[in-house]
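hey m, so remember when u said the tokens were messed up on ur end? i reran from scratch. heres the input so u can diff it against urs
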Amino acid sequence: MLSSQLKRREFVSLLGGAAAWPVATRAQQPIRMRRIGLLLSGTGDDEIWQAQVAALQQGLRELNWEEGRNLRIEYRWGGADSQRFRAYAAELVGLAPDLILSNTTQALVELQRVTDTISVVFVQISDPVSAGFVANLARPGGNMTGFSNFEYTISGKWLQILKEAAPTIAQVGVLLNPTDPSGQRYLRTVEEEISKLGAQLTRLDVRDAIEVEQSIDVFARQAAAGLIVFPSPITSSNRDRIIARSVGHRLPAIYPNRFFAAAGGLISYGIDPVDLHRRAASYVDRVLRGEKAGELPVQQPTKFELVINLQTAKTLGLEVPPTLLARADEVIE
């Protein structure tokens, strides 16, 4: 009788242990590695781009995505070269990642050319509806969504602020990359607005560092001149050259991002690209967890920062109006 009871207890114990096996087995299963591609402007050794990628990585870690543990990231840096963007877009699509993130219009054009199935999250893309990347902001449709930075009409605001900072300006140059589709759209607004201010417009097309320096040198010979620098990988990558040439020629200039003013540019008005990259991690997370990119609404910027570098203003011999200083979010002494 005792022997039968012991055998029965052993059998029940065995059943209990067997019931726990699936739980233990599941706990020991390796974490599924996900892969994303980053098709980025600029270069990996530039502190501006490093800060943006670091913000994205930090945002992902906060959402439990850690590179090397459950996430593999393929980095491709296109600089400001449209041909390189085309090659890298095809290369990343060929790797069949779970998602691709891009932060420039040139790269997004190339991604749109080669895939309509892989989810794409974009960052700092101007007016993605009129650019043809999404159907509308609320329901993008297709395979793309993300975070926009400017509507193209902001270039009219840059013109107004520049004219307010330097009222005697009669000649306005716009520095843009002619191969970047967004530059043409910013230009249209300036062309529409400039006659209202009684000024003349000069278009400065730049594709590399040499053209940047030569264009500014030639334009600065005009009297009462001022410069608008459009957002572009080529202008961001050559910010030190642009600022040095502008200040050297005593040429008032306005820029689209704070990092220009922080580096010695006169005025900047725009959004914080580092913050946009950090916020983009939330959409990467949602897509990796199963949501469709085309069903996530495009997020628009909620804050624009006006930054004035007073030290540069003094170097230029420019007296910034008190009304403009009062509106500044930051004044660099």
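this time it looks ok to me. Residues 2-28 form the longest helix (27 residues). if urs says something different then somethings off w ur setup not the seq
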